[in-house]
Automatic annotation (TrEMBL):
The chain crosses the membrane at residues 20-39. This is Cobalt transporter subunit CbtB. It holds the Pfam family CbtB. Keywords: Membrane, Transmembrane, Transmembrane helix. It comes from Actinoplanes digitatis. InterPro entries: CbtB_put.
Length: 67
């Protein structure tokens, strides 16, 4: 029979605030990325051609063929 003093109680692990802030930052960045992609593809606004052209020019600047 195990010693009662030696058995540790079950508890939920504590999550540090640093982990929570990092997770929140990652979620915000992913939502921003989804917004930009949806905006670029015209799902959010039909006037998103400025962002589309900016991305298009960026692809040409990097030497990525897109046509």
């Amino acid at each position: 029979m195990p010693d009662i003093q030696a058995v540790r109680p079950l508890s939920t692990p504590a999550v540090s605030p640093r982990v929570l802030v990092t997770a929140a930052g990652v979620v915000v960045l992913l939502l921003l990325l989804a917004y930009l992609v949806a905006f670029d593809q015209g799902a959010i606004s039909q006037s998103g051609m400025y962002l589309h052209e900016l991305m298009h020019d960026g692809r040409h600047l990097l030497g990525v063929p897109c046509h």
